[in-house]
Amino acid sequence: MSESWHSFEMKVLIPAHELPDGALVTKRTGTAQFRIRRRMRFYTSGGADESQRQTVTPKDGCVILVEVNNGDRGNDAVNIYPGTTQFMWLTNSDDLEKWLRDRRHELEESNCK
């Protein structure tokens, strides 16, 4: 009989600077969901022209939090937080395992330099 592995949903408390770009998170004790972003691009009408595009990149390891699924409340919240702020990462066991492998590889490569 072969064993089968099923990915399962999980929450991981982790500093923002460790999270992958686009990760779905909540604040430590909250339920509102946010996406982690390392940068955001803003376009004006006819934004194909480079002069009509702005990119916001927070400094000093900070991350951008963009609220998602806010229902009828209207305006989506966009905030910048220090990278040391801890958030609950809403992930699954497969994605967490891949992230851990990638992180380990990055650390091994940086130690070889």
Structure description:
- By secondary structure, the protein is α+β, with helices and mostly antiparallel strands.
- It has one domain.
- The chain contains one helix and eight strands, in the order ββββββββα.
- The longest helix has 20 residues, at 93-112.
- The radius of gyration is 17 Å and the shape is globular.
Keyphrases for this structure?
alpha+beta, 113 residues, six-stranded antiparallel sheet, two-stranded antiparallel ribbon, 1 helix, globular
Question: Any low-confidence stretches, pLDDT <50, length ≥5?
Answer: none
Alpha-carbon distance between the two ends: 46 Å
What is the molecular shape?
globular
Query: What summary fits the major beta sheet?
Result: 6 strands, antiparallel
Sheet/helix structural class: alpha+beta
Strand percent estimate: 35-45%
Put simply, the count of helices is 1
Tally of extended strands? 8
Compressed to H and E, one letter per element, the order equals EEEEEEEEH
Average pLDDT number: 85
Overall radius of gyration? 17 Å
Number of domains: 1
Summarize, please.
With 113 residues, this protein is an alpha+beta fold. It has one domain.
